[in-house]
Design goal:
The protein is an alpha+beta fold. The protein has one domain. Helix content is about 25%, strand content about 15%. The chain has 3 helices and 2 strands. β1 and β2 form a beta hairpin. It is elongated, with a radius of gyration of 18 Å. Bound molecules: zinc ion (ZN). Zinc ion binds next to loops.
Length: about 110
């Protein structure tokens, strides 16, 4: 049986990166599939928007693409929201917190 401790509700402002600023993804290049990082297009992602080719002091081929360039960011946002909702929907006050942000509360069944 679950306790009735009050859980803190944290609603991310960005559903694509969940406020992390970056997204890890797998991509196959030739025969090799590796893990890559893309920075988000939101405020949090600006810290990760690093383009080494623009650095004049020490040119580097290192470049982090944006999520919009590399990935289906709308799909990622929808999936993240769904996962988050599944984890948080039973929290007390979750619907009120979402409504305060003008978000639509998914209805089950
Ligand atoms: Zn983001």
């Amino acid at each position: 049986m679950k306790g009735k401790k009050k859980e803190k509700i944290r609603i991310p402002s960005c559903w694509i990166c969940m406020d992390n600023g970056f997204i890890l993804y797998r991509k196959k290049v030739g025969e090799y599939e590796g893990e890559y990082v893309a920075h988000c297009t939101c405020q949090a992602g600006r810290d990760y928007a690093y383009d080494g080719t623009r650095c004049e002091k020490q040119k580097s081929p290192y470049y982090i693409p944006s999520v919009a360039e590399e990935l289906d960011h709308a799909g990622i946002g929808a999936k993240n929201f769904h996962d988050w909702w599944e984890r948080n929907k039973n929290k007390k006050g979750i619907e009120k917190a979402m409504e305060e942000l003008g978000m639509k509360v998914p209805k089950d069944g």
